[in-house]
Design a protein that fits this description.
Molybdopterin biosynthesis moea protein, domain 2; Molybdenum Cofactor Biosythetic Enzyme, Chain A; 6-stranded mixed beta sheet; alpha+beta; 7 helices; Molybdopterin biosynthesis moeA protein, domain 3
């Protein structure tokens, strides 16, 4: 077993202390996985999945000129002199039913009733909204001059046949589902959800629901990381926990690598006597550990390695560290095998951000990137950003936070009153 301070990787000694982006690049220079396979899913299950192919419009949408208003379809030239007090008088030509081809055509001096979404009849080139018209028997009074194209959605205005609507690598959003449905697609080609094996180690861990003995704690990390993986599009599998014994950790890792795209090995990434992740990664396959120790806080002892083509991330045992290590490294790993475009870089947190003024000074240390939990408060002056107290074992600090303030490695502090960006959870 290595002793603290001895070399821990072929590339350096404890620790490597690379910036997150540099650590990730070291991994990506070695780990070049193939994309996971693709499958078809029902439209109702497409949200959040990653498209495996470009999606092209099979036909024009709309497939016909349709009305954007309830009103009368007319020839614009027949309404050129129309005004509120001096309406154009047109002959009523009939109604156009919804969901059917127009049974009528509009000739010179005629108007046909159309509803929003119904077909604009042949001969008409504009629609006058019903509020600007009056029907008197077989005569329609038009009180507003129309221009060609007014209130008409032209064929193909939304989607042109053959045009790429959604690109491969896009994560499907609810409005994308609307586009897919409008194209008549019942099945969507998506990437398979990457399999992520989660192994937690520690003699002190107990599953939620079981009673605690003195000195024991509930295993929060496995469930937190599984929830993160699920949210990011992976398929998490919580494997049986292991005791703090080298042979158990190695055996569990060997089993996990055989059926997973990524493995998260939680609880043994530092250099204490029971911190076994790095040794297990080196023992199970090649090239083994690539990075041991990252210049970040929390999650400083994170281990990154590759075992026979499978990425293995040694996750620190403290729950805040575990969740942030997953955000920094496991999330871009999933996006890599899913082919998400553009791919996330290590250290990029969350999908959305906001800005606000820092309510209290935040200290940091030059040379490491800090991920500071913060709470947002809306005030009369704007958004106030409050640092949330708590160490890397304080789960409540994550619960109370709305997001993370990322302090760059070159900063030793961020002063009170500074405008900062917050990456939202």
């Amino acid at each position: 077993m290595r002793r603290p301070g001895e070399g821990t990787t072929p590339a350096g000694t404890w620790g490597d202390w690379l910036a997150p982006a540099e650590a990730w690049q070291r991994v990506r220079d070695v780990w070049q996985p193939a994309l996971v396979g693709q499958e078809g899913v029902p439209l109702t299950g497409a949200r959040g999945r990653v498209l495996a192919q470009d999606v092209r419009a099979p036909a024009d949408s709309p497939a016909f000129d349709r009305s954007a208003m309830d009103g009368y379809a007319v020839r614009a030239a027949d309404t050129a002199a129309a005004a509120q007090d001096v309406p154009a008088r047109l002959a009523y030509a009939g109604d156009v039913p919804m969901g059917a081809a127009s049974p009528i055509a509009v000739g010179p001096g005629q108007a046909a009733w159309v509803a929003t979404g119904s077909m604009v009849p042949p001969g008409a080139d504009s629609v006058v909204m019903v509020e600007r018209t009056t029907r008197e028997g077989e005569t329609v009074l038009i009180r507003q001059a129309a221009k060609p194209g007014d209130n008409v959605v032209r064929r193909g205005d939304d989607l042109h046949a053959g045009a790429v609507v959604l690109r491969a690598g896009r994560r499907v959003r609810p409005h994308d589902v609307a586009a897919l449905a409008s194209m008549g697609l019942a099945q969507v080609p998506v990437r398979r959800r990457p399999r992520v094996a989660i192994i937690a180690g520690g003699d002190e861990l107990v599953s939620p629901g079981a009673p605690l003995a003195p000195g024991q704690i509930y295993d929060a990390n496995s469930y937190a990381m599984a929830a993160q993986i699920d949210e990011w599009g992976g398929e998490p599998a919580i494997l049986p926990r292991v005791h703090d014994r080298p042979e158990e950790v190695r055996a569990a890792l060997e089993r996990a690598v055989g059926g997973a795209d990524v493995v998260l090995l939680s609880g043994g990434s530092s250099v204490g006597i029971k911190d076994l992740s790095a040794e297990a990664i080196d023992a199970v396959g090649r090239p083994g550990v690539l990075v041991h120790g990252v210049a970040m806080r929390p999650a400083r002892p994170t281990v990154l390695g590759v075992v026979d083509g499978v990425l293995v991330i040694g996750i620190p045992g403290n729950p805040v560290s575990a969740m942030i290590a997953c955000e920094v490294f496991a999330r871009p790993a999933l996006e890599s095998v899913l082919g998400v475009q553009p791919a996330r870089q290590a250290g990029t947190m969350g999908d959305y951000s906001t800005q606000g003024r820092l309510a209290a000074r935040v200290r940091s240390q030059v040379g490491r990137r800090d991920y500071v939990r913060v709470r947002l408060e809306r005030t009369a002056e704007g958004i106030a950003v409050h640092p949330v107290p708590g160490g890397s074992n304080a789960i409540r600090s994550m619960v109370d936070a709305d997001g993370l303030l990322v302090v760059p490695a070159e900063r030793e502090a961020v002063e009170e009153g500074a405008t900062v960006e917050v990456r939202l959870f």
